[in-house]
Structure formats: C-alpha cells, structure tokens
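If your schedule permits, I should be very grateful for your opinion on a structural question. Thank you for your consideration; the sequence and its tokens are set out here:

===
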Amino acid sequence: MDQFTAMIQVFPNTGQLIATIIVITISWLLRRVIHRLLHTYIDEVQVYHRYKKVTTYTLFFISFLLLILIWSKDFMSLTTFLGLVSAGIAIALKDLLTSIAAWLFIISRKPFMVGDRIQIGDLSGDVIDLRIFQFTIMEIGNWVDHDQSTGRIIHVPNHKVMTESLANYSAGFEHIWNEINVVITFESDWQLAKSMLTDIIMEHANHQTLQVDEKLKKASRKYMIYYKKLTPIVYMDVVDHGVQLTVRYLCKPKARRTTVDHIWTDILKTINKEDNINLAYPTQRVVLNQD
C-alpha cells in the first residue's frame, strides 16, 4: 500500500491512467458481448451489420466522453476541451456527417434529381427518393438485359456521391446513343442491306432529331456537349464471320429495350422477304484438296 501511495506521488496521473485502462477494457468487453448477442439473435445480414456499426459508434462516443471527464481537470482551456469533443463526434459520426455534406452538394449542384436514371459505382437505377442521409434507386440491369428494372430497391448512402464515379443517363439533352449490330453473310447483298437498315432506322428514330436538337442547344449552355450529326446512321465493318452493319441512333434512356424490339422486328421481317440477304453466325468451313 505504501509503495502504491509512493508511486502515485511520483506519478500524479497514475489514477487517471488506471481509470483510462478500465474504461477502454469495459468498452471493448461490452462491444464483444453485444456483437455476439446481435449475431445470435439477428439473422438478416444487413440488419446485423447496421446494428453492429451503431453499437461500435455509440460505445466509442461514450468512452471518449468518459476519457474527457477523467482527464478534463488537466485541460486549462475550454476551447481545447470543446475541440476534442468535436473531433470525437466527427470521428464517431464520420459517415453520417459526410452524408449530410453530400446531401447539401446534391441539392445545390444537382448531379441528379428524383426521376433521373443514374449509375453510381456498380449500381444502376432510377432515383425514386432523396433524403438527408441516403437516396433510393429502383435497380436496373444486373442480371436483366437492356437496362430493364430488376424490381429491387437499393438504398445508397449519400456519401457515395463523394467517393464513387457518378453517371447520369438523364442529364444533358436527355437522350443516349444506342447501337444494334446486324451481321450478314459475305455472299449477301450488303449494299441493299445497308439501304434497308437506313430506311428502317430513319422511320423509327429520325423523329427524335428535332427534339434532341433543341435540348442540345440548352444543354450546351451548361456542358461542353457538341455533336456534328444527330440523325440515325448505319456503319459498316467486316468481322470474322460476315459483314457487320451497325445501326446507331438516339433514344430515351428508359425506351432502349422497346426501340430495340421494334427495330429488330422490322429488320427480321424485311430480311425474310429478300433471298439475297442472310444473317450470319460463327461457322467453320472445311476445304478439301482434291489433289
């Protein structure tokens, strides 16, 4: 006992160090116990991780306040005390504070709005809700082709906007370029096929040109967007198993699959009427040397 008293006299902060160790130990033990209980009684993974994070932040914040109270008598400046408390809160609530800052950025700069179709990181969908901590999208793509809805609702923390790349399908002039590849055999009349495809795509997509031209003029005031040609076009290339004709046209982001369906329907109907145009597919040819 005398030795302990002598040690306290030599090291006046010994009691505070012991109290600090006790607080940290109890906090660590509580965290382990609570996480084990959560793992036992909560089956849903997302809910488990959400409560696990809340528990960690809460215990950290409480421990930090207790340590401040333990050591506060050695702080002569109230400003220093408040600064440390603020720093602790900022560390404990980092994601929440970043999400609030991102929310202010979203509503001021408007990288997207409710109703826009966006892609953030690996996620794509239509924005259906925007709140102070998160925004919600109706997922598209993933296992579904041509940007169709999967039916899943995904909640995305706002702070993702500050750390992930963001693509907006609906910004600018509200249209996207889409392409359809049609491959015909080398023996087919490619000139006739190209002319037929041009007529088909003009019928389906040329009416968009006037609408897009007006929207492009408005968008060019805000963004450096410039296109020399907005009308549909058919490009030609040669691939290993035939002549590839690429139909390129503008469409609304949410109408992509519908336009593909209508255009392919007319393409197949037209090709079926022509004897000298055949669709190609990967094949192998064997040439026998008669000699």
